[in-house]
Amino acid sequence: MVCTVRGLVKTYPAARGRRGAPATPAVRASDGIDLDVVRGEVFGLLGPNGAGKSTLVRQLTGLLRPDEGRVRVLGHDLVRHPERAARLLGYLGQDSTALDELTVSLAAETTARLRGLETRAARAARDAVIEELGLGEVAGRPLKKLSGGQRRLACVAAALVGERPLLVLDEPTSGMDPVARRAVWAAVDRRRAERGVTVVLVTHNVIEAETVLDRVAVLDRGRVIACDTPAGLKALVADEVRLELVWRTEPPLDVPEVAALRKAAEACRAAGGSGRRWTLRLPPDDARAAIAAVTGGPAFAALDDFTLATPSLEDVYLALGGRAEGADGLVKA
Ligand SMILES: Nc1ncnc2c1ncn2[C@@H]1O[C@H](COP(=O)(O)OP(=O)(O)OP(=O)(O)O)[C@@H](O)[C@H]1O
Fold this sequence. Notes:
alpha/beta; Rossmann fold; 2 domains; six-stranded mixed sheet; four-stranded antiparallel sheet; about 25% strand; binds adenosine-5'-triphosphate; ATP-binding
């Protein structure tokens, strides 16, 4: 086992409001979390904004001390010895400004040196990761002068450089274009395949979650509400399909079938079932009947588009009772 978490509890204390700002209540951001991550797997943490994902990974990396519970990484107790984390894992936080003044090249080289590589080895590792992530053109520029996506990519390069048996990446691809995202996932996958590196990954992006992750823990309000393979999680909602309807302007609610569907759309409001775009989760037969109703009758003129899809992790998340406002974040990211 690379990483074991038992009974993890972390409460951020209440804060008094200052200068007219409202007081904030205490938040139990980790509420009794148990997790086991095995060697060589890409383990995802999925959940809405504020679910407690970053709080969890910051405790996994020794940066935040839990109130209760145990964190063991590669045999080390990181609650008692948080300083050991730096030797064991490569961490990419949500916003990393520490490297801002350095050039991409120096950021990678310095990190490699800090991880114990000799000068020559550090330079070789630097060149390899810059090439691997397609950063060659911007290698000589300081991070603070790069675009958001390039900057993030440079931080990924620094997180990956050197040989760490565990990588903890908090939304590594946020703000990146598809080419950069693909390069990051390929780099992660290569480390897993060639070196047996284990990866713990926070992501909002459901598509990514389905393609790169071996297992996923779904977090909600500081608790793990499900943990399985993407396929295993999807089996939870296998008897449903997702129907999306897009209306040209206002939905024709005077058509009885449409008015009836609105109720189902509101039940799925979390996924955007209001306004012009409706998302419905229905048993296959009901979805077929709904399509017949909106494409065959007077509603058709008002319909712009529709799609029918098998369930995604997002549907699983909703079926598990995830919060409405969070699901949006899951889809967009
Ligand atoms: N330093 C802090 N002080 C007080 N409360 C905090 C602090 N950091 C996080 N929180 C609260 O703890 C909860 C969990 O936050 P956390 O950042 O772990 O969530 P997250 O799942 O990573 O969210 P996101 O997807 O938005 O990054 C939230 O309610 C948040 O407001």
